[in-house]
Amino acid sequence: MKILVFSQYFYPENFRVNTLCAELVSRGNEVKVVTAYPQYPFGKIYDGYGFGVPYEREWKGVKIERLKVPPRGKTAYGLLRNTFSYVGKGNKWVKRCREKFDAVYVFEVSPVTVGLPAIAYGKKFNTPVFFNVQDLWPENVEVVMGVKNRTVLHLIDKIVDKIYAGSDTILCATRSFMKNIAARGVPEEKLRYWPQFHVKPDYAALKKPKEYEEDVFKVVFAGNIGDAQGLDLLASTAAIMKGKGVKFFIVGDGRARDSLEKKIVRLGAEKEVLFIGKVSEEAADAYVHYADCAYLSFCDNKLFDMTLPAKMQTYLACGTPVLAAAGGESAAVVREAECGFVAERKPESVKNALERFMTADRETMRRRAEAYFDAHFLPDRLIGELEKMMREKSEREKRK
What we know:
Blueprint: E1 2-6, H1 16-26, E2 30-35, E3 58-59, E4 62-66, H2 76-96, E5 103-108, H3 115-125, E6 129-133, H4 139-143, H5 150-166, E7 169-172, H6 175-182, E8 191-193, E9 217-222, H7 232-240, E10 246-251, H8 257-266, E11 273-277, H9 281-289, E12 293-297, H10 302-305, H11 310-317, E13 322-325, H12 328-337, E14 340-342, H13 347-359, H14 362-376, H15 379-399
Parallel strand pairs: 1-2, 1-5, 2-4, 5-6, 6-7, 7-8, 9-10, 9-12, 10-11, 12-13, 13-14
Antiparallel strand pairs: 3-4
Helix pairs in contact: 2-3, 3-5, 7-13, 11-14
C-alpha cells in the first residue's frame, strides 16, 4: 500500500509516529510524511535545520515532505501562527499534489487542526482517512491551554466536527475517548479502540545508568515536563521524604522544567531529585527498567482521567512497577495489571505508596507489568491491526 501521513511532528522529534512509519515501510508499504521542521518541545527549530537548509528527504525508508511552518516559540500568538500555518501550507500542498495514496493516517497529538489537510486530501482523491485521536479537542484547549473564550471554543468545536465527519475511521487511544466522541453524535461504527504502543526493549541490552546507586530507592519519571503532568506533587513528595533513602530521577524535558527546578530548590529537595534531561529512547528505557518504580501523575481533571499517557506503555514495556498519582484510565490499568499502586494526588498519599513499594514484592509486579504489556500494547499486533484496517478500507473504495 501507499500510505500518506500527516503529522506536525516527526524525526528527529521523538514521537511514536516515527516507529509506526518505519514499521509500515518494513512491512512492504510505501510511506510519505507531510510534516514541519523539528522544533518540539521548546518551539525553536533544531540546529542543522532551517527553511533555507536542505533536509533529509528520507529516513528509514520513509519519505519526508517538510512544510515551512514557523516554530511556535513561547507565546500564544506563536502557537496560533504555527498551528494555522501548517493547515494553510498543508492545504496548498494537497492542491498541488498529483500522487495517489491508498490510505491517509493522521497522527493527532495537539493541535487537532493537523487533520484538516488530511481531510482535504481524502476528499480530493476519495481516499480513506484514519484519524488517530490522542488529544481531545476542544477540551484540551480549555483545560491545558486555559482558553475560556466561548466563541473560540465554539469555532474549535466546528473544526473538530468537520474532521470527525471527514474521517472514515477514528482511532481512539482510550475507551473513554470513544465514549466522549460518540457523545458528540459521531457514529459508533466509525470509532475503533487503538491504544498507543511501545517497542519492547531487549532488557539484556540496556545498560544500568551510572547515576543509579545501589543503596537508594529509585523512582523515575520519563516524559514531557509540562503543567498537565502536575509534577509539583513529585517535588512536594521529595521534600517530605528527605532522609528516607529515596531519590527521584526525571528523564525528559519540557516547558515546565524551569519552574519545577525552582520549586525543588525552594523546598530544599535538590539532593532528592536529579534531572537527567532529554535522552534517546533506548537510554530512557534503561532509566525506567532499572528503577524500583516508575512515577506517573496528572493534574486533577476529568480530561486527564480519560487519557492514558504514552509513558504508561513505556513503563509496562520496561517491566517496571508503576505508581500512578492519577485517576481514570491510568489508575484502571495499574489496578487491572496489578503492577503497582494508585495514590491520591496528595504528597502524603504518594509518600505512603512509595513506602509500600519498598516492602512489596516488586519482582512479581515486574512480571505482571510485562505480561500486561504483552497482552495489550505490542506494536506488531497493533500496527498489524491498523494495516489490515487500511487495506480493507482501501480495497472497498476501489470497488466502488
